[in-house]
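Reopening this one. Same input as before:
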Amino acid sequence: MHLNLEFGGGLELLFGSVKTHRVEFCQHDGTDENQEIKMDVLLVWIRDNLLKERPEMFMKDKSVRPGVLVLINDCDWELCGRLEATLQDNDTIVFISTLHGG
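Same output, byte for byte:
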């Protein structure tokens, strides 16, 4: 499954200053690679495979930190089921930090 991941609002700094990642996501349990993936599984994968530093700035417990806006194909993930949202091949997931220093 191919996914487009985008990080903005300063979150890209946690990912080696790379804003856009096109990733091939597959579960290592031998299941079909076209199987649907849920957001909770993707977040753990992002933490373990893409995040370069300070995981506490991106995740809290099993979700994103408060203040991180998540869009799935330009739709707020709150409307898609949050951690239970199902992803499909070529979906675009955008993470934007709304917290800024002052």
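So the earlier flakiness isn't reproducible anymore. For the record, Residues 41 and 93 are 13 Å apart (CA to CA).
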